[in-house]
């Protein structure tokens, strides 16, 4: 499965940096060893249900240290028996675009 998620704190002081909180979450994801990618709005992580959700839980908890409340947005692509889709989906998309440009 692939999970795309965004997590952010609220309720902290006005001097708290959201960047630091997001960095804490991304550190958890990267240290998990699971395939992952971070963009300007989401972090994607790929693996089995339990391991991915554990990473999301830990990342959310890491952000919790930066505020009194945490907002979590999560989208999942659950496709049993498929691995390497973090890159595979993008490769198929790029190939389709290239075919249509030719």
Radius of gyration: 16 Å
Coarse shape: elongated
Indicate the proportion of strand residues: 15-25%
Strand order, biggest sheet? 2-3-1-4
Alpha plus pi helix count: 3
| Poorly predicted spans | none
Q: Structural class of the secondary structure composition? A: alpha+beta
- Oligomeric state of the chains present here: single chain
Average pLDDT, all residues = 93
Please write the string of helix (H) and strand (E) elements: EHEEHEH
Intertermini distance: 32 Å
**Largest pleated sheet:** 4 strands, antiparallel
Number of strands: 4
Helical fraction equals 40-55%
Topology, please?
Elements: E1 2-10, H1 18-31, E2 36-38, E3 43-46, H2 49-64, E4 69-77, H3 85-101
Antiparallel strand pairs: 1-3, 1-4, 2-3
Helix pairs in contact: 1-2
Would you mind describing this structure in some detail?
The structure is a single chain. Helices cover 46% and strands 25% of the residues. It is an alpha+beta fold. The model has no long low-confidence stretch (mean pLDDT 93). The protein has helices at 18-31, 49-64, 85-101; strands at 2-10, 36-38, 43-46, 69-77. Helix 1 packs antiparallel against helix 2 (49-64).
